[in-house]
Design goal:
By secondary structure, the chain is α/β, with parallel strands linked by helices. It has a domain of 158 residues: 3-Layer(aba) Sandwich (Rossmann fold), CATH 3.40.50. The chain contains ten helices and eight strands. Belongs to the HAD-like hydrolase superfamily. PHOSPHO family.
Length: 241
Amino acid sequence: MKFLLVFDFDHTIIDENSDTWIVKCAPERKLPNGLRNSYQPGHWTEYMGRVFVYLGDNGVKEDEIKRTITTIPFTAGMIDLLGFIGENKELFDCIIVSDSNTVFIDWILKAADFHKVFDEVFTNPAAFSSAGYLTVQHFHAHHCAKCPKNLCKRKVLKEFLDKQLERGVSYTQVIYIGDGGNDLCPVMFLKKNDIAMPRQGYTLEKRISQLAQSLSPVQCSVLVWSSAIDIMSYLKLLIKE
């Protein structure tokens, strides 16, 4: 009996968006209007690339970015939940699928000593250039019309499950924990026995309920959470069964 926990990162594990939090490093803690207005739907990674160039041009160094990023608060109850998962790793495989980037997620998990809880992190590759600028790339290419250009979370989840099956690992249940519009695509991929856990009041919950109202509900069960303690309570019930 093994369960797969799939976590989004921004507004799920942490209570903020790491990409917008970084604006605290900018001069006067804001971005110029021209840069702010340069975002085009589906091209967030390119937009963040321009933000990182702006920060670099203004002399914002790696250590300052790291200091700022590691002050982002975890979502209510998340520290308890991740601690609980860490104590029960023989029952839970745990992955992150996020539109953030490797540098931010790595820093945050290591600062809180949670990096061992997660088996794999699937997110946009990032690194600091020799000039000290943070650069970010697309996670992969895909053909899904519903998802942003750089990342289809359904594709990531499907490929991970296929790879695990090749290794002889299959899961009793997949539990998907997220909040955003880009979490709907992988949730639509979940099977009848799986469970989607959308964060209360966020886009994913609204999208799932719109589908139910239009009589094309998702196949999996849905359990809404507002604190990660709600998620932990569910996992404790699963283990008891």
